[in-house]
Here is the input.
Amino acid sequence: MAAKPILADLPLHMATVDADTPGEDVDKLLRADPDLPGVIVKDKNGSIAGVVERTAFLDKLSHRFGHALYLHRPIRTLMVHLEPRPTIVAAGVTIDEAAHIVLSRPPSERELPLVVTLPDGQQALVHAEAVLHAMCRLLEATLADLKRREDDLVEARKLAALGDIVAGIAHEINTPIGNGITCASHLAETAADVSAKLDAGSLKRSELVGFLDTVGEEAKLVQGNLMRAADLIRSFKQVAADERSEARRGFLLKAYLQDIVFNLRPRLRHTPHQITIDCPPDLALDSYPGAVSQIVINLIINALEHAFTTGAPGHILISARALDGDIEIRLSDDGKGIPPEDVPRIFERFFTRSGHAGGTGLGLFIVETLVRGKLEGQIRCESHVGEGTTFIIIIPRAVVAGPVS
Here is the structure.
């Protein structure tokens, strides 16, 4: 971990005079260095008697008779008019601690410089404004770091959802591919047996007819299994490509929702839950299908993980309809519902009631961000404990921003 910045890292100004120094000399020091925040004044014992702050001193000189009163008098005569007891801090004090010291002062004293004691015992001045600017830079860097970490978590959440689909599809493809290999192996063995009999001249007509029947049946089985595997791959490729792409394109909503649910079948297979889609087949969007898939997948996974916890069969309904130039998508479940005090907070980043179970609290935050940002829409949640939850999304049929792919 990087060391925290300290006062010694800021520009420090060395300017010290004794209490008997004429005001004229102090005036020359300040005018010679426009960045000098003031001058440290020491008594005859070498202790700090006070600080002549730049703005206050020059302001005194600008008053009527100011030059006559202060220029030729010892600077100690001005001390009672310029600054209260100086704030002395060590050079090793961190910027955040120094900023706290500055902000803890009365408002009228917040612009006064700090006296910094260096390791060798000397004193220097640092602008209070420089301390606050450094603190602002620290806060900006911290916020940027938190934003990067948040983006990493959001990306990890997206990849985790996609990873679940990959694992499920890989398992799902094993069955048709395995069946196809079995059929092809049996067909190869049968063909080898028929070929041997043909070479030996012992092949009977009935055996040839049986072989041709077997070829037809096995070919249909191989074709059916390969088509099933191809459907799985096609569906996964489209959804996965859209998930990782920022491209905008036209698509039919119902067919795309079917692809999404189809890719989630492996996850649903081991549950008693069902998903139904109610959407006109010709309902088309000119939008970002990747964002749509991320939203729907997150909402379905959210329902599977949080709505149905009793083991009883649950039902998720995804419905869509046209609303003038918009489209309304509803995803409803008949699960346990959300407590009313939690409903206003469910879209907040990192809000979760299942942190102990590995929840990140980012699923619904991602959903709202995509709906309001990428899809230029609105989302709200309606829920009643014991009756289920409905997410209502309204998005334009054609987004305004972004070129069509």
In short: The chain has a mean pLDDT of 82. The chain is about 50% helix and 20% strand.
